[in-house]
Specification:
The protein has about 375 residues and is an alpha/beta fold. Helix content is about 35%, strand content about 10%. Strands 1, 2, 3, 4, 5, 6, 7, 8 and 9 form a nine-stranded mixed β-sheet that branches. InterPro entries: DUF707. Keywords: Membrane, Transmembrane, Transmembrane helix.
Length: about 375
């Protein structure tokens, strides 16, 4: 019997040929698409990698630039930034105490100002009175012993609570240049750098600091009691009707007088060097101006205004409300108590002669520096 072919069977019989034809047509197309996709993926992957690489390089460059722009102290580049300790202080610490045990107490009682003075044993009574006043006001006290004598100060109960630095026959400014670097005294708001021949019966450190803060004085000195003091410059004389004065008035020909229009020392913007007081910022500037080899610092007083952090006619002044006595005792270069009397020599004339010579050297250096520094602009011209 002959089998009948149904339509479905016919379709099935035709499928193999159609399938082969279909596959033969689609395979090249798929292959072409794969090739296109492969090249496209490769192109975009390469483009992405290049872009990512550029981003990475830019990021690294930015990081390197940031590192290069960090202001690191010279010599500290080998250390991680967080471990670098830029400053120090003059606080004495006990050997057997953990530094963290009294942190709160230390912060509450921290000394915020420094009193430094060049001393000799002959003036111990005056020094004793000054040290007591400043210690009570919670100052750090530092004594520079220019006569080499230290042990005899142990008679005073405060001796172990102050810092002693002893080098024979050196001046206050020699000590200051070497032991009061701005980074060492950066913790202190004000630095008092005084001579030893001063009377402080009418002087109160706390009140003085309060006044110079309120008046905005970056460089100052207490006024001198004119009845008991050796006064060399009129501007330092105490005014009885004012709390602070910043200028003096006097008649004089050929531009030597001082009046309201005066803008330069010694009429205004000037203090004497026997009892100067500097703010932290002013001292950083002054320290750089002190010449390492000019130990008497003559001439420095006329240029202090450049360190006044602005207008010297406003930021430099003399405090009348808190005043002192300047006895004017000759000290440096006096007779050496350790020498036999027959061989002892008074070098005070030699000291004065060297001071004048240093003044001339300083003036020449200043003028030379002004002429050679093309970038410096005199703010007072």
């Amino acid at each position: 019997m002959q089998k009948m072919k149904t339509p479905g069977r016919e379709i099935l019989d035709a499928d193999p040929k159609s399938k082969n034809s279909f596959l033969c047509g689609i395979v090249p197309t798929v292959s072409l698409l794969c090739v296109i996709l492969l090249f496209t993926s490769s192109f975009f992957a390469q483009h992405y990698n290049e872009k990512l690489s550029r981003w990475r390089m830019n990021f690294q460059k930015l990081g390197n630039d940031n590192c290069k722009n960090q202001c690191r102290p010279s010599g500290s580049q080998a250390l991680p930034e967080g471990i670098i300790s830029n400053t120090s202080d003059l606080k004495m610490r006990q050997l057997w105490d953990s530094p963290m045990t009294k942190t709160i107490d230390n912060k509450e009682n921290a000394s915020t100002n420094l009193f430094a003075m060049a001393v000799g044993i002959k003036q111990k009574d005056l020094v004793n009175k000054m040290v007591k006043k400043f210690l009570v006001s919670n100052f750090v006290v530092m004594l520079f012993h220019y006569d080499g004598i230290v042990d005899e100060w142990n008679d005073f109960e405060w001796s172990n609570h102050v810092i002693h630095v002893s080098v024979a026959n050196q001046s206050k400014w020699w000590f200051a240049k070497r032991f009061l670097h701005p980074d060492i005294v950066a913790e202190y708001g004000y630095i008092f750098l005084w001579d030893e021949d001063l009377g402080v019966e009418h002087f109160h450190p706390d009140k003085y600091v309060s006044i110079i803060k309120s008046e905005g004085l970056e460089i100052s000195q207490p006024a001198l009691d004119t009845e008991k003091s050796e006064v060399h410059h009129q501007i330092t004389a105490r005014g009885r009707r004012s709390k602070v004065h910043r200028r003096t008035y006097k008649t004089g020909g050929r531009g030597k007088g001082c009046d309201e229009s005066s803008t330069a020392p010694p009429c205004t913007g000037w203090v004497e060097m026997m009892a100067p007081v500097f703010s932290r910022a002013a001292w950083r500037c002054v320290w750089y101006m002190i010449q390492n080899d000019l130990i008497h610092a003559w001439g420095l007083d006329m240029q202090l205004g450049y360190c006044a952090q602005g207008d010297r006619t406003k930021n430099v002044g003399v405090v009348d409300a808190e005043y002192i006595v300047h006895y004017g005792h000759p000290t440096l270069g006096g007779l050496d108590v350790n020498e036999v009397s027959s061989r002892a020599k008074d070098h005070r004339v030699d000291v004065r002669r060297l001071s004048y010579r240093e003044l001339q050297v300083f003036r020449k250096r200043w003028q030379k520096a002004v002429e050679e520094d093309e970038c410096w602009i005199d703010p007072f011209q």
